[in-house]
Structures are given as C-alpha cells and as structure tokens.
Amino acid sequence: MSASTIVEDLITYLELEKAAGRDTVYLSPQVRREFFADFSPSSRTAAARSGHSAEGEKTIRSGDGGKSAPRSESVSGNGVQDRAKEQLAEAPTAVTSPVQPRIATPSIPASSASLDWPVLEESVLGCHGCGLHRTRAKPLFEQGGRHAELMLIGDSPPGHEVAAMLARMVAAMRFKPEEVYLTNIVKCQTPGGRWPDQSEVQACVAYLHRQIELVRPRAIVLLGAMAMECLLGQKSITRWRGRWQRCHDIPTMAVYHPRFMMKHRQAKAEAWQDLQCVMRFCGRQTNA
C-alpha cells in the first residue's frame, strides 16, 4: 500500500467520522500502526524511487469494484477538451435530485422550478424553511455575475478568512469577480461554521437547483465534500476530486473546500492542479 493511499484512506475515515458528528476521533495503537507503517524513511525512499509519490499519482480508487477513476492531467490545447469529453462520457447522467445516504435531496417544487431571478431572490431572503432564519443577519443569496462562465458552489456562506481565500482563488484562475457566480447549498451561515444538517439542506437545495438552471454556466466547481455529495451523489472527495462529471448536464468538477486547504498544504497544491484543469477547460491560460 502506497503512502498516498494511506493518506486518502485516513482522510476519508476522518471525513466520515466528522459527517457522523464526531469531531474528536481516537485512533488505537493498532490502527495507527496500520495507517502509518509505510511512512518510515525507508518506505518513503522506496516510494520516491518507484515514482509512486502522492503528487505523481494519476488515478484514484473510484469505489466501482476496483476500477480506477482517471484524474484530470496537466495537458493543454485540444487535449484538455478531449480529456474532459472522455471523462464526461463516462460520467453519470445529468443530476437534478440525487439520492444519497446522508442528505436526501427532494425534488424541486414547481413553485421554485419556475421562479425568475427577482422572485427567487425574494423567496430566499424571506425564507423561514429551517431554524437558521432565527440567528441569521441576512441570507447570502449570491455573489458575482448571473451570466458567469464559471459557477462555484459551497456548503454554506463562508467566514471572512475563507471568503478572502475564495477571492484569491478566483483571481489566480484569471477570472474577474463578475465572471464567476458564487453561491451555496444553504444560504444562511451556520452557528460556529458547522456543516449544514439534513433539514437545512432540504429547506434550501431547491433554490440552488433553480440558480444553476438560470445561470447555465460553462462549468461548475463544487467546493468540498458536502457540495459534491449533495449534487453528484459521490461520497469521498479524496477519490472524486479533479474528475469531470455532470450536474444539470453541465461539466462539473469537485475540489477540496478552502477550509480544508487552509489546514493542509498538500490539499492546497492538489486543489490548484484541479483548478488549473478548470482554467484550461474554460480557455484561461495557465503557467503549467
């Protein structure tokens, strides 16, 4: 087992524990030995010699019976479009109401599916669909331009540090603020920045689907595990990030959430690789 696989399994394990509401996880001595046995100096040297470093791996386990899910590679020109087309051809059909274990997303009510921009925004600003309306200052309906080429979707309105990092990400991708549309599954900030719960997602997700339909961007970037699970039905961000899929028949890629990137330098580097793939898909020049 390679060191990178151990890291992926460990992160997946911690993600599942956090999703179950356990913020503190105890790893027994036996589990620690199993997770970290390959991190001895000799193992790292052998991995480097064989070329199987975490940065060099091009495939990830997809949970489909042992097959590999191709990760977007650093190519340019027509190769980017061809690679994206290959992945999209293998992607699930267009997603509007995915069914997955942790967050049961309802079908879009007719009252939301037919709303235009003014009525949709007014509905969100006056929404009392869950308990978050009692503590919110004001829902964050959207940021950016409604005719944007790129749409970013997170789980809930970010704090100041995450918002600043998102702004830097957009600038690094060579998009102007008005060329990107940013929204979230849940429109109100959660207490302490926690993940939204199922009732909060159910109250808000129909608005998000309508926003996607109205914007119709060229590409969508899903920020973090919750957005990916809600809209694509995939569970492990470490296994599915960086791969083109479809949401509302729009090319969609999941990346690590900025909160996770701020804590893990390697995740930030991997996310930048994924975002460069999005840049090339949208015709933006990169330095790679």
How would you briefly describe this protein structure?
This protein has 288 residues and is of the alpha/beta class.
Q: Give the % helix.
A: 40-55%
Q: What is the CA-CA span between the terminal residues?
A: 30 Å
Q: Order of strands in the sheet with the most strands?
A: 3-5-4-6-8-7
The helix tally amounts to 12
DSSP strand content: 5-15%
Fourth-level CATH superfamily of the largest domain: Uracil-DNA glycosylase-like domain
How many structural domains can be distinguished in the coordinates?
A: 2
Q: What is the approximate shape?
A: globular
Q: What value does the Rg take, in angstroms?
A: 19 Å
Report on the structure:
Strands 3-5-4-6-8-7 form a 6-stranded mixed sheet, with helices on both faces. The chain is globular, with a radius of gyration of 19 Å. It is built from 12 helices and 8 strands. 33% of the residues are buried. The chain folds into 2 domains: 3-57, no CATH class; 110-281, Uracil-DNA glycosylase-like domain (Uracil-DNA Glycosylase, subunit E, 3-Layer(aba) Sandwich). It is 44% helix and 11% strand. The longest helix has 18 residues, at 198-215. With 288 residues, it is of the alpha/beta class.
